[in-house]
Design brief:
The protein is built from 1 helix and 7 strands, in the order H-E-E-E-E-E-E-E. It is α+β, with helices and mostly antiparallel strands. Strands 3-2-5-6 form a 4-stranded antiparallel β-sheet, with no helix packed on it. Strands 4-1-7 form a 3-stranded mixed β-sheet, with no helix packed on it. The longest helix is centred in the first third of the chain and has 22 residues. The radius of gyration is 24 Å and the shape is rod-shaped. The termini are far apart.
Length: 112
Amino acid sequence: MKLKQQTQLFIFISLIILSFATSCKKEDNSMDVVITAKLMKDTTQRVAGAHVFMSQGDVSVEGYTDNSGVFKYTAELPIVLNVVVTKDTLKGLGSVSIGEYLEPAHKTVYLK
């Protein structure tokens, strides 16, 4: 009889632990980064196809702006990245703080 009670107690405790373990969700700490490339001489004109390079220490990200002059990236950790945007002979520099206030980071880089 005692063995049966111990088995039932073990099963009950296991079910409780299992329910707590499966109900815990991992927090999503990813943050969106949006870089917009614009011309310095005409700030209403966006630059499509510009090369975007962001880096800081061992972290680096690169890609190209889309047809609307926007480059999007999802970062997994808070960091401040240096941003270099180039297109032909045009170049723009800046930095973007990712993870500040846990909101998407938007940065406009002006090329001249």
